[in-house]
Amino acid sequence: MKLRSVAMTGVMSLAGLGLVGAGAHAVFTQNTVSSQQITAGTMNVQLSTLVPGANLSANGQTLTFANFGPTGSSFTTGDELVTITNYADFTVSEITATIGDSYDSSGGPLSANSRLAAEAYICEVSSGTVIYNGLLSGGLYTQAIVGSLTAYPGPGNTDSYTINVYAGNAVTEACGSATSGAAVSGVNPSATDLSNDAEGGVVTPSLTVGYSG
């Protein structure tokens, strides 16, 4: 009796192992994949102007107007229009406008260069709006600006600004007496003639417009 009992136990064990093996073969696996190609665009904002004698850098990002002068105590460079075009393949945002001046200040604050930089005025207009109109020395800071240029050649891919450096009773077509707001032609009564101390002075004003994208 004992031998038969042992034999039956062995058969049941084998059957149990067979059932476990059959269940393992019923498991399926599968993978799904989602992907996306990302391409970074290239910034390409360039300047242009119709002002005679202006020199444009090879990359189109720096514009230098012809030297002006010698001048009298009252003068104006004229409203010099610059066009900005976004040739990038994505929209860029205007973020800053910075007025600057460059001159040899080694002679100290009473030198002719320093006096000219302190007494000259600058008119800055962007798309018909006066951004700044006052002493060059008073505008040497970075201004936050809001605007955008769409990708070329779509509509809205260009902007413009005008610069005029002047002194005395010179007429500016873009600023006049306005310090902000809509452009207006006329004389700025706050602007005085250059003093004798500014005679022979040399200064190079500039405007830098910053973009992000």
Features:
213 residues; alpha+beta; seven-stranded antiparallel sheet; three-stranded antiparallel sheet
Secondary structure elements and pairings:
Layout: H1 2-24, E1 45-48, E2 55-56, E3 63-64, E4 75-76, E5 80-86, E6 92-102, H2 112-119, E7 121-126, E8 129-135, E9 142-149, E10 158-167, E11 171-172, E12 181-182, E13 186-187, E14 204-212
Antiparallel strand pairs: 1-5, 2-3, 4-10, 5-10, 6-9, 6-14, 7-8, 7-10, 8-12, 11-13
Structure commentary:
This protein is α+β, with helices and mostly antiparallel strands. It has helices spanning 2-24, 112-119, and strands at 45-48, 55-56, 63-64, 75-76, 80-86, 92-102, 121-126, 129-135, 142-149, 158-167, 171-172, 181-182, 186-187, 204-212. Strands 1, 4, 5, 7, 8, 10 and 12 form a 7-stranded antiparallel sheet that branches. The chain has a 3-stranded antiparallel sheet with strand order 9-6-14, with no helix packed on it. It starts with a helix and ends with a strand.
Q: What oligomeric state best describes the polypeptide chains here?
A: single chain
Shape: elongated
Mean pLDDT: 87
Instruction: Report Rg.
Output: 36 Å
Question: Which spans of ≥5 residues are poorly predicted at pLDDT below 50?
Answer: 1-20
Distance between the termini: 91 Å
Helical residue percent band: 10-25%
The structural class is: alpha+beta
Number of strands: 14
Report the sheet with the most strands, covering strand number, pairing sense and barrel closure: 7 strands, antiparallel
Count of alpha/pi helices:
2
Strand content: 25-35%
Summed up, the domain count is 1
Order of helices and strands: HEEEEEEHEEEEEEEE
